Amino acid sequence: MSLAIAVGIVLVVLAGYGSPANGGLSAGNERGSGTHPASLTPAPSPPGQIPLGVFTPAEATSWAAVAAFGQQAGQSVRYVVAYLGPENPFPEQLGQEAADHGAEMVLQLQPTMTLGQVAAGDYDGYLSTLAAAVCAYNYPVILSWAPEANANQWASPQTPIADYRASWAHVMSQFRQCHDVTWMDTINRTYPGAPPTSEYVVPGVGMYGIDAYYEFAGDTFDSVVGTTLAQIRAVTNKPVMISETGIGPAAGQARSLPGLIQGVRANHLAGLIYFDVNQGNTSPTQQNWALTPASTQLLRESLAN
Predict the structure, then answer these.
(1) Which residue from 125, 119, 178, 120 is spatially nearest to 145, judged by alpha carbons?
(2) How far apart are CA 123 and CA 50, in angstroms?
(3) What residue segments make up the domains of the chain, in order of their start?
């Protein structure tokens, strides 16, 4: 599923966040050595535990929904996601809640102009403001730029590879002073007619994310994630996580959840972020992804095994 489908929900719920904090320009390509109180720094997950993340619209106003997801899953939430465009300042409230609960924010940065314009500096006003806020935040954060560009995002009909790479280099340069950023290149699952995944692997990032949804009956980890994962690992040894996923009614949550968790574990992925949102059932790409109570129990049992 494309992140753009979710943007209407996201931009509304993020509108209530506070203004960016003041501070110097931020961050480079790899995580640095920022110092934080040990209790507030996200700790490595226990051996054998899959780092779990979530997006829920309710996170904009309260951490309760994030905490509830973790309680139902039987482990603390490691990652919490926010989708940001220039209408959205740095989510200070969410960031403070994440820090207080030992979690890490994943900020998916979604441009509102072509990537060629971004590379030329036309987006720098927003980027410099956001960079200042990220640096002032002073806790680890994962940043992802122009997610799912291989899925006809950010340009029509297809984002030019040269513009994609140039925009990445330019955006990363705006955050060069920050020491607590990990850059994640978020790639949409491959599909018939999609450009080669390898073309969207960019230098300098610390990890890769795959956005992939279970939309149809018969979907499995191998068919939804496996091909794209293999294509990424053919060209880089950086860590890979499932950066956005959901299982719709058509695919069968109860049937598919154990296989999803087994696939993450068997392939030694760096984490799993679940898109816990009801988008209705109007099309394969807009379903009710929210976990049912029965599916939540299956998630808990699968994570514990």
Answers:
(1) 119
(2) 36
(3) 3-27+47-304
Distances (CA, A) of 267 to 50, 170, 227, 240: 11, 32, 12, 9
Cα dist. 65→153, 205, 254, 271, 282 in Å? Answer: 30, 30, 22, 20, 25
């049912």: which residue's tokens?
292
Q: What are 227-240's pLDDT values in tens digits?
A: 999 999 999 999 99
**Would you say how long the chain is, in residues?**
305
In terms of CATH architecture, what is 3-27+47-304?
Alpha-Beta Barrel (3.20)
Residue 260: burial class (beta carbons within 10 Å; 0-12, 13-18, 19+): buried
pLDDT at 159: 79
Is pLDDT of 299 > 80? yes
- Antiparallel, parallel or unpaired: β 79-84 and 207-211: unpaired
Class of residue 96 by CB neighbours under 10 A (exposed 0-12, middle 13-18, buried 19+): middle
pLDDT surpassing 50 at residue 14: no
**DSSP assignment of the chain, as one string?**
--HHHHHHHHHHHHTTS-PPPP------SS-------GGGSPPPPPTTPPPEEEE-GGGGT-SHHHHHHHHHHTS---EEEEEE-TT----HHHHHHHHHTT-EEEEEE--SS-HHHHHTTTTHHHHHHHHHHHHHH-S-EEEEESTTGGGT-SSSS---HHHHHHHHHHHHHHTTT-SSEEEEEEEEPP-TTPPPGGGG--TT-SEEEEE--B-STT--HIIIIIHHHHHHHTT--S-EEEEEE-B-TTT-HHHHHHHHHHHHHHTT-S-EEEE--EEEEEETTEEE-SPPHHHHHHHHHHHH-
- Supply the pTM of this predicted model: 0.86
pLDDT at 3 over 50: no
pLDDT at 173 over 80: yes
